[in-house]
From TrEMBL:
InterPro entries: ATL_DNA_repair, MethylDNA_cys_MeTrfase_DNA-bd, MethylDNA_cys_MeTrfase_DNAb, WH-like_DNA-bd_sf. Keywords: DNA damage. GO terms for biological process: DNA repair. Residues 12-91 form the Methylated-DNA-[protein]-cysteine S-methyltransferase DNA binding domain. GO terms for molecular function: catalytic activity. Pfam families: DNA_binding_1 (PF01035). This is MGMT family protein.
Amino acid sequence: MPTDAKPAIEAARRILAAVRAIPRGEVAGYGEVARRAGLPGRARMVARLLSHNEDPRLPWHRVLRSDGRIAFPEDSPGYIEQCARLRSEGVRVEGGRVRGKRAAATLDEQVWG
DNA sequence: CGCCTGACCACGT
DNA sequence: CACGTGGCCAGGC
């Protein structure tokens, strides 16, 4: 078997790499991460991966919805945690929304420079 | 194979 | 900016 992983596995690998590539203090949308991983239209796959992820080194908190909002309900522990982590990196969060960093998925490349 | 669910997205109002 | 609507994709049963 010539060292080739299953498509799904390879996709997951690339998505995680894209998430890890988000610089500290910066944020990105699920759809944006998917595109960056070469998987346009797979935003939900990114979300699914993060929801099952257990690697503490993965900067999952830098991934937001396309409108810059945190993807958890306001009262959930995930929301609290993400909010705290972002603020600790100097990211401004107001009303469950990140201000000033422009994480919208429609802004191709803008966040990634 | 159909049906339902989810850390989603784009678009119109 | 808030909401509702339809679309998309991967999994679980």
